[in-house]
Amino acid sequence: DVKVTQSSRYLVKRTGEKVFLECVQDMDHENMFWYRQDPGLGLRLIYFSYDVKMKEKGDIPEGYSVSREKKERFSLILESASTNQTSMYLCASSPPELQETQYFGPGTRLLVL
Amino acid sequence: AQSVTQLDSQVPVFEEAPVELRCNYSSSVSVYLFWYVQYPNQGLQLLLKYLSGSTLVKGINGFEAEFNKSQTSFHLRKPSVHISDTAEYFCAVSAKGYKLSFGAGTTVTVRA
Fold first, then answer.
1. Residue A6 in 3-state DSSP?
2. What is the mean pLDDT of residues B33-40?
3. Do A99 and B9 touch (CB under 8 A)?
4. DSSP letter at B105?
5. Average of per-residue pLDDT across A17-25
6. Which of residues 74-113 of A touch B (CB under 8 A)?
7. Residue B108 and residue B87 in contact, taking contact as beta carbons nearer than 8 Å
8. CA-CA distance, A93 to A71, in Å (whole number)?
9. At residue B43, does pLDDT exceed 80?
């Protein structure tokens, strides 16, 4: 089975802090994704990576950056956390073909105070 | 660009009753369609997907969905639900490149 793990299930941070969310997949997938999930809005793509050191902006990249130094690991960085970044963050991975399933981690619920 | 509309935000249903979750999409090109489920405090997992061929797609846990190109719909159905089907359900569409566009989700609550 594909396994996608996220470093924390719950995080509480203060406004202005730098926040790192880590995601690791064990299936050698080329593609990795970061989404945020908010009630009534579904999932919105923040960033996408299709290879090591490669990244593309998704629909809502503002206030976020990402890092992919190794194929299995994809990090989401909040440079200066703000209260409007309080959300559920979901990581996913998939093979490169368009029709392939994305496999999701359990999510990190981030609260910014 | 493609978009997805899930027509019901909340669907309460009694155990052993049928359920239908409605999904409409818009796209100017051919699409792949997906239904994902999110159980409480978990990530999303794939229920089923339509890529091509037969318009009736069967998935896990007794769910099925029908692709209707003329109505641009991909409704999800289950003939008899269980308490364990209580979850949030997301319809998603992929048209080109890597992106999945998700609907806002439908929360299904199954009551005894």
1. strand
2. 94
3. no
4. -
5. 97
6. 90, 92, 96, 98-99, 101-102, 104-107
7. yes
8. 11
9. yes
The token pair at A33 is: 């994704």
Average pLDDT on A94-106 reads 82
CB contact under 8 A, B43 and A104: yes
Among the listed residues A23, A26, A21, the one whose alpha carbon sits nearest the alpha carbon of residue A3: A26
> Taking a C-beta distance cutoff of 8 angstroms, is the pair A59, B100 a contact?
no
Q: Quick check: B44 and A41 CB within 8 A? A: no
Strands (E), chain B: 3-6, 10-14, 19-21, 23-26, 32-38, 44-50, 56-58, 64-68, 73-78, 87-94, 101-102, 106-111
Mean pLDDT of chain A: 93
Taking the C-alpha atoms of residue A73 and residue B35, their distance in angstroms, rounded to an integer, is 26
| B54-104 per-position pLDDT tens digit | 999 999 999 999 999 999 999 999 999 999 999 999 999 987 666 789 999
- Which of A7, A23, A36, A37 best tests the B interface by mutation, with the highest count of B CBs <10 A? A37
Q: Inter-chain contact B99–A44, Cβ cutoff 8 Å?
A: no
Which residues does chain B have within 8 Å of residue A48's beta carbon, measured at their own beta carbons?
Answer: 98-99
The CA distance from A44 to B101, in Å, is: 8
Distance from CA of B38 to the nearest CA of A (A): 10
